[in-house]
Amino acid sequence: MVVYAGQGDPRRSMSLLWRGAAEAKPGLTLESILDAAVAVADEGGMASLSMRAVGERLGRTAMALYGYVPGKAELVDLMYDRVLAELPTSYDLSVGWRAALTAWAQDSRAFHLRHPWVLVVSQARPVLGPHEFVVLETVLSVLRETGLPPSVLRGVVGTVVQFVRGAAAVIADAREAAGATGVADDEWWYARSALITELAPDFAQRFPLTTWFGEEEPPPVPGEEDAPYLERDAVRNFRVGLEVLLDGIEAAVSRVVSG
């Protein structure tokens, strides 16, 4: 499922994003509607979100919400921008851009796992709300310390953001799969690994590089000992991949300095 932002009336959506709610009516506010909408999506995913579901959570009808939000399309834009306000807006640059960017990446991954429905909102068309720009300002405040020009930082920002979203999506999908299928992650992998050994005894000869790739036992992940296999693996890959990505940024900085 993919949801595209900005599907409602542009003027009404942008006015709500940048100017706030209209005059409040007794017992209901735009803020309370957004809080309820976020709670619905957090609990049941984007597929569970509807004006009716939000209204029921507030003890109101769907029609009661339309005086504040024109429709579901605008609601998605508003709740997306609202949750982005949870992210930190500054990082300690005295420790260097690498440590600061690592902290930002960890915070961003944790944010996406708190609100996995955010991953369903396509990046092809941004919401263009104020908190979305605050997130960009925060990342740029860290990466500007590298000294790389804007033409290079465009690619760096896009790569870092998509890396973090992708890392979070693996864990979010694994958690959703266990709930949707009723089969735990470790159980699923164990059953199929055993069958491969039984049904393909020549697996190592047919796929030598895959076999070599899996021979070395990966190091334990501190703090993730009780997590399902795929989550542990995803956390490990996130940490290793982030270090490699940061090494690449450092190499780009070195080229600029030496050039």
Commentary on this structure:
The chain is flat. About 20% of the residues are buried. It folds into 2 domains: about 80 residues, Arc Repressor Mutant, subunit A (Orthogonal Bundle), CATH 1.10.10; about 130 residues. The longest helix is centred in the middle third of the chain and has 32 residues. Helices cover about 65% and strands about 0% of the residues. It is mostly helical. The model has no long low-confidence stretch (mean pLDDT about 90).
Q: What's the helix and strand layout?
A:
Elements: H1 10-19, H2 30-44, H3 51-58, H4 72-84, H5 97-114, H6 130-143, H7 150-181, H8 185-199, H9 203-206, H10 208-213, H11 229-258
Structural class: mainly alpha
How would a crystallographer describe the biggest sheet? none
Multimeric state of these chains?
Answer: single chain
- Helix proportion: 55-70%
| Tally of helical segments | 11
- Given as residue ranges, the uncertain stretches (5+ residues, pLDDT < 50) are none
Percentage beta strand: under 5%
Mean pLDDT over the full residue set: 90
Domain count? 2
State the end-to-end CA separation: 45 Å
Radius of gyration from CA coordinates: 22 Å
Order of H and E elements: HHHHHHHHHHH
Dominant shape? flat
Number of strands: 0
